[in-house]
């Protein structure tokens, strides 16, 4: 397959996913192979929801919509244009995927295949229904992909390079176990929002999307606020209110009740509004239904702090503070060239040696 053929296959996959971006799935006559795949994917969506209660219809639709928007010919070419694909010797690249949000490992899957390598995927048990089905669709659209995509639940043995995502503890294991292979090993990261007190109501309402989307389970979710001294949280809580129905989701409510009880029994100071708690804490990773906050004294010290802790931070949501900041409300809408941990996955794949 040449690069254009690989692009064309993923464009067709984007068109297929476009049928699942609203609550009422809409079959489109122009989409290839629908008689084989449309009803089957509806069934896989149902299985994914039954297997993982965090994969609600709303969050699945949001994920499908994101990939539908990204998998266009113009987006793919804009992403790929700066890379040199000539002379690549195909390798077997393994991917160990997380399972915290729907299709969280899809960008790695896309990167391996679009670069021309073979892929072997070890999925999280929390997200095992969607990607194998989409891979079958790709193989039907582009039969040249057959034999280049495999999935395993067993120990990884035959591979030339690996991309692995996990916790800080599993990352240490990965680094030891895969020390003799070219690798990208991802650890825990969290995202922060920098507030000044001058944010509009619209800014803060947009921030609520960064906090609550996927129940805050993603590394791009804002789990920490950095605020000036004497910051008044009243406007912040007002802006969060649109998400109050989230407390009716049982898993979220159970986490809220548990964490609230822990804070109260430990006599921690915290503020809450019935569905979200905020607590002053130096950590970046906050529990579900909680956002941590810290005060900063001035922007110079704040920028130094962000630079010092950059390896702990996935996204910084801010307005005019630093280069590469994310606008309010956009953390869960990355572009294809917005690489996790700022590690260029495609450059890594294209530089694998014979």
From TrEMBL:
Keyword match NADP: yes
Keywords for the protein's UniProt record, in alphabetical order: NADP
InterPro entries: Ald_DH/histidinol_DH, CoA_reduct_LuxC
Superkingdom of origin: Bacteria
Entries under Pfam families matching the protein: LuxC
Protein's recorded name: Acyl-CoA reductase
Lineage, highest ranks first: Bacteria, Pseudomonadati, Bacteroidota, Flavobacteriia, Flavobacteriales
């Amino acid at each position: 397959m040449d690069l254009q053929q690989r692009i064309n296959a993923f464009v067709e996959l984007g068109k297929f996913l476009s049928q699942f971006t609203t609550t009422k799935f809409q079959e489109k006559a122009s989409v290839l192979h629908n008689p084989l795949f449309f009803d089957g994917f509806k069934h896989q969506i149902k299985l994914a929801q039954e297997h993982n209660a965090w994969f609600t219809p709303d969050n699945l639709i949001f994920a499908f919509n994101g990939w539908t928007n990204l998998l266009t010919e113009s987006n793919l070419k804009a992403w790929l244009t700066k890379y040199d694909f000539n002379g690549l010797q195909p390798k077997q690249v393994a991917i160990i995927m997380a399972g915290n949000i729907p299709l969280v490992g899809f960008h790695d899957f896309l990167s391996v295949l679009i670069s021309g390598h073979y892929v072997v995927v070890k999925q999280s048990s929390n997200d095992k229904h969607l990607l194998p089905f989409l891979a079958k669709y790709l193989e039907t659209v582009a039969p040249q992909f057959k034999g280049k995509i495999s999935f395993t639940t067993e120990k990884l043995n035959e591979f030339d390079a690996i991309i692995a995502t996990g916790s800080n503890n599993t990352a240490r294991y990965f680094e030891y176990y895969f020390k003799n292979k070219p690798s990208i090993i991802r650890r825990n990261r969290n995202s922060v929002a920098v507030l000044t007190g001058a944010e509009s109501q619209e800014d803060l309402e947009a921030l609520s999307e960064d906090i609550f989307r996927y129940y805050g389970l993603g590394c791009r979710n804002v789990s920490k606020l950095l605020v000036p001294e004497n910051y008044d949280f009243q406007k912040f809580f007002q802006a969060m209110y649109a998400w109050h129905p989230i407390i009716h989701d049982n898993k979220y409510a159970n986490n809220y009740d548990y964490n609230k009880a822990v804070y109260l029994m430990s006599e921690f100071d915290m503020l809450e509004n019935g569905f979200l708690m905020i607590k002053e804490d130096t950590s970046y990773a906050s529990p579900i239904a909680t956002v941590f906050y810290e005060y900063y004294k001035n922007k110079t010290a704040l920028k130094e702090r962000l630079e010092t802790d950059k390896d702990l931070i996935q996204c910084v949501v801010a307005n005019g503070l630093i280069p590469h900041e994310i606008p309010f409300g956009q953390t869960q809408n990355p572009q294809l060239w917005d690489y996790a941990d700022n590690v260029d996955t495609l450059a890594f794949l294209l530089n694998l040696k014979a």
